[in-house]
Amino acid sequence: MNKLPVFLLTCLFFAPGFSTAQNLTSDIQAMKSAYAASGSIVAVDARTIVIEPNMPAPLCAMPRAEGDKTTWTYYTFPLSSITVPLAAVDETLIGEDAVFTDPDEVKTYQPGKAGDATMVVVAGLPGKEFHTLTYDLDKFVHLGPGPHPGSEYGQAPDDTEAFGLTFVDRTDARAFEMALKDAVVHARAQTARP
Description:
Layout: H1 3-35, E1 39-45, E2 48-53, E3 60-66, E4 69-75, E5 79-85, E6 95-99, H2 105-108, E7 117-123, E8 130-134, H3 137-141, E9 156-160, E10 162-167, H4 170-192
Helix pairs in contact: 1-4
């Protein structure tokens, strides 16, 4: 008779951890689905993912209105992989911007026109960095078809405090952001448990 209360207490003790792990798994699956058109995501362990963007990375142009004039800022993130310990992400700094990936847009842009892609920017907590593999975009675009070793396109390890991911579909970008924010919270809850 005394075994039943002990069993129930054990279930109550482990149930929150199980629920958090389940939620984290669901969050990672949601990120994979949202990012499928832009690259792939692999879960390394319960709290770490590797994001592998499609290559080559697009050149993203972002318009800025300065008085009656429009200036442009250009971004590209030539990353073949980003290792992301979820608990190291600052979920308050995850943001998005509408960007243009068509190089001719600068010539035909009219103020107020929406971008053709969404760039999601992810930053780490103070003092945290993400391990990445970068590549030389110019070398990559000049390679012929077929598989090539990383040395042919200048692949090299690097660390960064922030990175950007490009989504063609804004709905996918927002779904990714929401899932990432939830995953960060759940990863921290798992990390906090003994």
